[in-house]
Amino acid sequence: LTVSFISPFQLSPETLQEVSARLRKDLLRGLGKHSHHKAPVKMLPTFVRATPDGTEKGDFLALDLGGTNFRVLHVRVEEEAQKVLKMDSQICAIPQEMMLGTGEQLFDHIATCLGDFLESHNLKGQTLPLGFTFSFPCEQLEIDKSILIRWTKGFNCSGVEGKDVVQLLKEAIHRRGDYHIGSVAMVNDTVGTMMSCGYKDQSCEIGMIIGTGTNACYMEEIKNVKRIEGEDGRMCINTEWGGFGDDGCLDDILTEFDVEVDKTSINPGVHIFEKMISGMYLGEIVRLVLVKMTKDKLLFKGQISEALGTRGLFETKFISEIEDGLENAKKILTELGLDWSLVDASVVRLVCDTISSRSAYLCAAALATLVNRIRNNRKLGHLKTTVGVDGTVYRKHPTFSSKLQKAVRLLAPQCDITFLVSEDGSGKGAAMVTAVAQRPAHQSRLLEEKTVYILTPYLQKH
Ligand code: BGC
């Protein structure tokens, strides 16, 4: 009986190959001039065309919104040592009500956190450039003009979708009037991750996040990005792969539990792929399976505790802890007020393992699509590349990264991938992008044939 709950989550290598093939088509839809508009995988240009070349330097501020916490950072980039130093950082809580309140409240709060940080670090008199890691899908029109397409994860503030986020931030700072900021660079967390790893490893041309949400960016040939003028060189594309499946193309692999998680989320119908994978949702999928199994008298003598019966109380971090050891599993089940047996504890571990493995395999399928695409773009028999990765699920889960890596090797056998866990891509990476953005284009050292990411304005075809 337990098997009937588990098996819909177990995807065969053939199914994963099929998922990868479907995403391959969707990448093309997202890149196409006319198909882009309706494409579920948005494939957003990022302006990033060059890697750091070691000449960047200076002090920067960074804001990081969209992951586990909101953070303000002061970062120094040193030219000679080729180092990005995090000088200081501060976490500011964003209360749940604010995540669902008005945009004005949210940006006032951000401006207050930044003001407090500048005050306490004696930076208020300076006008520092600022990298804004804003980890939501944005149509970037210029490096400092970025229109929010839609909120994802836990956010749903009114009056922000369709607006320029930089403008909203500047207006909030202006309302206070007690400090100034310099030029702003908008950065998706995937791009920050790629850039912070690219600083160390020039062959890093993919950034991937598996945390609260999931997404990846990669270096695409400009000639393939039909919405952008130009034929030469490459540009980093923010895929927004979380939106894969929003047109129903993954419906055949969704379980009843995925459908339920989507229905009860604050953004039903969107980011279907993300909802099968990322930390915001994995715990809830496990909880729903456990509740159903308990109702069917397969667990806990048929008794659902109040905690298990409450939406959101089975946290994704419990999955990592439970899979890490049976003792952890017992402790967590006790804390959830459940009357468990040893068999129950083992079954719960199996459920956790099944759902986190599916997440790792789906990510592997998506990543395989990207590396295979890069290999085909360059007409290479064999591709050697590096992926910068970040996110709590990837970092904290005991076996997630190894499962993902093994599955990618299977799905993309002609690609040899090095995985590099980024050191604070959202903070240091944002500073790096800002530093590169400040560099006049003519001073950028173009590295022919290599991955080059230079931030230069580009013309949009429409
Ligand atoms: C957002 C992406 C982001 C990802 C990881 C998704 O919900 O749409 O922009 O990169 O989460 O944080």
UniProtKB/TrEMBL annotation:
Keyword Nucleotide-binding: yes
Pathway stated in the Swiss-Prot or TrEMBL entry: Carbohydrate degradation; glycolysis; D-glyceraldehyde 3-phosphate and glycerone phosphate from D-glucose: step 1/4; Carbohydrate metabolism; hexose metabolism
GO terms of biological process kind: glucose metabolic process; glycolytic process; intracellular glucose homeostasis
Cellular component, GO annotation: cytosol; mitochondrion
Keywords attached to this entry: ATP-binding, Glycolysis, Kinase, Nucleotide-binding, Transferase
Residues of the Hexokinase N-terminal domain: 4-199
Enzyme class of the recorded protein, top EC level: transferase
Enzyme Commission designation: 2.7.1.-
Keyword Disulfide bond tagged: no
Cleavable signal peptide: none
Reaction catalyzed: a D-hexose + ATP = a D-hexose 6-phosphate + ADP + H(+); D-glucose + ATP = D-glucose 6-phosphate + ADP + H(+)
GO MF, one annotated term: fructokinase activity
Transmembrane segments: none
Domain Hexokinase C-terminal, residue spans: 205-436
SUPFAM superfamilies cross-referenced by the UniProt entry: Actin-like ATPase domain (SSF53067)
Family: Belongs to the hexokinase family.
Protein name as annotated: Phosphotransferase
Gene source species: Maylandia zebra (zebra mbuna)
